[in-house]
Every structure is written in structure tokens, then in C-alpha cells.
Amino acid sequence: MRVLSVNERWLEILLTPLRDGITVAETCRRYGVSRQSFYDYRRRLHDEGVAALQPRSRRPHSSPVRTAPEIEERIVTMRTDNPRWGARTIHTRLIRAGLAAPPAVSTIHRILQRHGMVTAPIRRAPRTWRRFERFAPNDLWQIDGTQVELVDASKAWVVDLLDDHARYAIGATATRRFTGYAAWTAMETAIDENGAPRQLISDNGMQFKSGEGEKPVFFQERLKAMGITQLSSRPRHPQTCGKLERYHRTFKEFYADHGPAVDIQDLQRICDEFRWYYNNDRPHRALDEQTPSQVYETLPKVVPGDPRPKRRNHGPRTLKVSKAGSFNYRKRKINIGQAYTGQHVTVTEVGDLVLVTHTASQKLLRELTLGPVGSYHPSGNKRGRPRKTASATPELVVSAMS
């Protein structure tokens, strides 16, 4: 069986009416093509020859909504000058630069792909751990150390502290050895600058805590004297201090670009530069592209001895209405009617009152008070009644630990 090229195939189709003495309609039925295609290809054969029978590009002659060439060039330049910036970061930077209508994040990503500046991501296994976040600044700090290499190939340490609520880099102290005294020096410096936290969490390193039944180490004694509650992560479970672990990765990338340091003083200079960049300039995906300093300064800070803060006013959330005319919010089912099926609503909490507005028109649809977890909230002014399949249990506050 001989394989025909596209040109030969279409040439055979176009010559069939003359060769077999059949009509164009019968030819098209035999080969499964439309008559419009037959006449188009016959016209191309007559005007341009056999070479014109090759398939042509389906790209449109004009693309009115395509990104302007100057903006695309600007995106490529930003990526070239900052190889670690992704589509989200570039999108945020364009907004900060005053671009009124920047391309969507997905569009920026496709532009980077088209220029060969990003590669396909590696597929990872689904994450099974549970995320948590404290509800106020200084409610919980995370502390740990990371090791770096200096110019002379000797090792040094950086003791880092991070606020759990805002991902704010509380402190970064360079030291030659990672001891309990070095850890407390970093802690003391951070307290002088930002105030003391209510709680502090660390791993089970000997710098931070003693073994079971042993005398408390220096770091433990100082925390206790200041009224700071000390928490420890689960052994062999770095996800408990995952925010700080991710911070270390970002710092290592910065250090690879701006290091290595000559000595401890030079390492401290690099740490200070990175800390300013991380807190005040770098948009953070987990903070809706805000900087940690913006989030850290929004709410009042917690101090040792304060009761644990609870989330009172939830930020606005945009949710899609189901076919049943309802949506799920904080483990409750709220009904607004099937007339809004497939549309989006914005849910805002003001104290104990929940406001539901239509996202597109900003029309207020409902005002209600949340019932117990698992309850169904019908339309009207009735309070939510528990479902038969769910027990009315108090709401669980998501956090790392009490």
C-alpha cells in the first residue's frame, strides 16, 4: 500500500470526475470531503499549481485581542532581567508600574512559554496536609536556622524568625555557630524591633529545648521569663514550620544570586537586604499578591498574656451558586434561589452578620446570622436549622495548635 502525500491525495480527488466520469457530488461522497473544499482546492490548483494543495496555516489574518507587541516585549524583558519571576509576579509588577489593564496571569504565562522562558511543571502528588494560619500578627512566630557557605568554603548559619499570620520576616541574624545563645540573640533582636510574640514554635533542636525530664536550656528559660509560650513541631514533620522552610528556599535563591558572603558581617548585610526585599517589595502569592509588611501592619499585634485571637470578620469571598440555588460557606449551606444558578455572589462578614451580595450588580441578596456547623440556611429571615445528616457541633477554629 503506497502512502500518498497531501498534494497527491487532493490531486487524485480533483481528477476523479474526469477520470471516472462521475459528478462532483459523487466524488465528494466517495472521499468524504465537502463540495466547498473541492471547489476551493480546484481553484487553488488552477491558479497556483500542485504546490498550492498543501494545507495552509489556520492562523487568523488579524487578532484584535492579542497582547500589544510593546507589552509582550516588556514582559519578556522583565523575565530576562529577573529569571526567578513567574507570571503572577510579573502581573503584579505591571500593576504597580501603573499599567491600567495588564494581561491576565494565564496570558503572561503563555507569552513566556512562546518565548521558551518557562518549562512544563513537574506533576506532584496531591497534598494531604492541612494548612493553618494564625489570625493576628505576633500571635505565633516560627524560628529555625539554615546553613550557608562563605567564599572560603567555611560554613555559617542564619537564624530566621517568621510571623505565622503575615509571613513577615521578623528577623535574620548571621552567626558562625548555631547555638542556644545565638538563637536567643536573634530572638532578642526581633523582639526589640517588633515586640514579643504570644507563642513561638520551633523544631526539637537542642538550641531550643531540652530532652524530656532534663533541665531547661537557656533559650527555654528566657522565653518563660518573658511569658512567651513555647511550642514544638512534631518530630520528622517539617510541614509544621512549613512557612519558614519555604522562606529558607527563597533566601537560598537570593543568596545564590547575591552571594557568597566574604565573612559574617557580609552575610548579615545580605540577610538585611533580602529581608527588606522579602517584606516590602516581593509580592506573596499566599497573601493575594500583597507584601508581608502590608499584611503585618493591618491588624493590631498580639502580646504575651493576651487571649488567643479568633477570626471575627472574614474577608470577602466570591462563590458560585449551584444548580440548587445555594452555595457552601464555612461548612454551612446558604440558599438564595435558583434564579442565581451559575452566577457568583460575594460573602462578607461584619461581626456576627453575614452579607450576601450579587457580585456583578452589587445587589444585596441576603443578611443572615450563621447557625451551627453543618446547618442549612433557607431563604428568608429564619435562623439556620441543622441538617439530619450533620450534628450541630461548635465550629472548629483552624490553627496549628492551641
Please provide a written account of the structure.
The chain is α+β, with helices and mostly antiparallel strands and 402 residues long. It has 4 domains: 6-53; 69-114, Winged helix-like DNA-binding domain superfamily/Winged helix DNA-binding domain (Arc Repressor Mutant, subunit A, Orthogonal Bundle); 140-296, Nucleotidyltransferase, domain 5; 317-386, no CATH class. 33% of the residues lie in helices and 17% in strands. It has 11 helices and 13 strands. The chain is extended and about 105 Å long. The termini are far apart.
Topology:
Blueprint lengths: L5 H15 L3 H8 L3 H14 L20 H13 L5 H10 L8 H10 L25 E10 L5 E9 L5 E7 L4 H15 L4 E4 L15 H8 L3 E4 L9 H17 L5 H17 L11 H5 L20 E4 L5 E4 L2 E4 L8 E7 L2 E6 L5 E6 L5 E3 L7 E2 L16
Parallel strand pairs: 1-4, 4-5, 8-12
Antiparallel strand pairs: 1-2, 2-3, 6-9, 7-8, 9-10, 10-11, 12-13
GO molecular function: nucleic acid binding
Protein name: IS481 family transposase
Organism: Antrihabitans stalactiti
